User: What shape does this take?
Amino acid sequence: LIYPIIKDRKLARELVKDALRMDPRGFLENPKALSEDLTEEAKKIKVPVLLIWGDKDPLVTKAEVEETAKVFKKSHLVILNSFGHCPHIDDPERVFKIMEDFIEEVL
Assistant: This one.
């Protein structure tokens, strides 16, 4: 399985609605992209990498995002409390500010 079994029917409906809003090409490529292990390629990235994760994300666990952060040589993980899988949609201004601060810090 790519995703854990989702027992919350409301959440499942929201995920289906989100998937239906995707560009059809992206929808078709999504499972393929999720099945590829890009760890070795990610290890080659030398520039700073920002990861933003919502602690209410039903799809990506804290352990998974922390493991991902460790792959990059220069990662910065921001954990947003009370946010789900798409904090950039839930609060784009806040995410933009986090990105802006990160860019200023690394330049």
In short: The beta strands are 49-54, 75-80. The two ends are 40 Å apart (CA to CA).
